[in-house]
Amino acid sequence: MIGPRLLVVAVAAATILVPAFPAAGSERAATVDGFAAVAGDGLATTTGGAGGRVVTATTLDDLRTYAAAAEPLVVRVRGSIVVTPFGDMIKVGSDKTIVGAGPGAEIVGGGFYLNQQHNVIVRNLTIRDSYVPGDWDGKESTNDNDGIRIDTSHHIWIDHNRIERVGDGAIDTRKDCDFVTVSWNVIADTNKALGLGWTTNVITHVTAHHNWIRNTFQRNWSIDNAAAAHLYNNYLQDVGQYGTMSRNAAKVVVQNSYFDHVNDPLVAKDAASELVQNGNVFVGSSGRRDTAGAAFDPAAFYPYAMDPAGQVPAIVRAGAGPQPAAHRRPARVVTVALDGSGDYGSLMGALGAHPRVIVLKPGVYREVVRVWEDMAGVTLVGAGRSPSDVVITYDLPAGGEKFYGGTYGSAGSPTFTTLGDDVTVRNLTLANSYDESVTPSQALAVRTVGDRAIFDRTRFVADQDTYKADSPNRDRVSRTYLHDCYIEGDVDFIYGRGTAVFDGCEIFSSDRGTPANNGWTTAASTSDDNPYGFLFTHSRFTSDAAAGSVHLGRPWHPGGDVRAIAQVVIRDSWLGPQIADPPWTDMSGFPWQQARFFEYRNTGPGAAVSESRPQLDPADAANFTRERYLAGTDGWNPIG
Question: What's phi and psi for 626, nearest 5 deg?
Answer without folding.
Answer: -55, -45
